[in-house]
Amino acid sequence: MKPAQRRSGIGKQLLVAAALVFGVGSWLYAEIQSPPPKLCGSEGGPPVTATRIRLRDGRQLAYEETGVSKERAKFKIIFCHGFSSTRLDVIRASTEIMEELGVYLVSYDRAGYGESDPNPKRSRRSEASDIEELADSLNLGSRFYLIGYSLGGHAVWASIKYIPGRLAGAALLAPVINYWWPSFPANLTEKAYNEQAVGDQWALRVSHHAPWLLHWWMKQSWLPTSTVVKATTPLPNRRDAEIREWAASNGMIEKRRKLATQQGVEESYYRDMKVMFGKWEFDPMDLHEPPFRVHLWQGDEDGLVPVTLQRYVCQRLDWIEYHELSMTGHYLSAVPGFGDLLLKTFLVRSQAI
């Protein structure tokens, strides 16, 4: 074969290889992209049924008010819902206690959930900013109370960090932890992490180390994925297990999921996982004591949030008033009388500071 023919053959092979690499790369890029969200009120999108405010960046934030009127309220509370929930999932306090204490409570759909517009730049800081804007739009005053449940706890940590001067008190209800917070001893987090289901370990690992891959990973049926998303996590607490079985049998779990993710699972569930389990710009255990009381409730049989890690957080932050509930799981709102206990303990003690 002549040199010119040899060079021509090599050139063709290189072109074919380059085309193959480009084709595979393009396919992979398309595979890991999430579909665009279906905004509420847009053509073909879900309808707008909630009351909403417009934020400074143009996004709409949906909210729900309960309790006494703002004009009569002695305590004004903002509630941050957890994973797979919406503004409609709040603490179950009795009307009598709400009236007696003078509680006004507003819950909101966190960005991308329910009827609140997605925020492609969502972060811990943006969550605190959304809370502050909601308070200002509703004229809640210079200071208000804040409650965060489960994964919504990251909004409370962020608010303690970024807007402490706006808070009169804060409560964390079974707040989800990040296994990569630097202050955790490696042996403690490794033990708790390894006790999670294999699919959850992988979902958390991808959320932290390769968040750009999460959407693709979660849609692969042949890969181990989150049992939390699938609502199949083993629950050691009997009440939790019974509640989930009941909710699954009557379609409540699916109904809540559809409402929470109606604008897209990427902008609700998956972005939540990225924000919660990604790399934080601060360690909650390095926070200074704020000028208000902080309470934290945790069940000792919680199958979603390791009690061992929660105890460590509260040992490090001795300014947190820690309440551990015996023989209790993750679904604190289902514990009889918990909503009333929460409000009386949280609000009355917060006033005493």
**Shape by Cα distribution:** globular
> What structural class is derived from the secondary structure elements?
alpha/beta
Tally of discrete structural domains: 1
Q: Which architecture name does CATH use?
A: 3-Layer(aba) Sandwich
What does this structure look like?
Strand 1 (51-54) and strand 2 form a beta hairpin. The chain is an alpha/beta fold. The protein is 42% helix and 14% strand. The chain has one domain: Rossmann fold, CATH 3.40.50. The chain has an eight-stranded mixed beta sheet, sandwiched between helices.
Which terms would index this structure?
eight-stranded mixed β-sheet; alpha/beta; single chain; 353 residues; 8 strands; Rossmann fold; 13 helices
Secondary-structure topology with pairs:
Elements: H1 3-32, E1 51-54, E2 60-67, E3 75-80, H2 95-101, E4 103-108, H3 124-137, E5 144-149, H4 153-162, E6 167-173, H5 186-194, H6 198-209, H7 214-218, H8 227-230, H9 238-249, H10 252-260, H11 266-277, E7 294-299, H12 307-316, E8 320-325, H13 338-351
Parallel strand pairs: 3-4, 3-5, 5-6, 6-7, 7-8
Antiparallel strand pairs: 1-2, 2-4
Helix pairs in contact: 3-4, 6-11
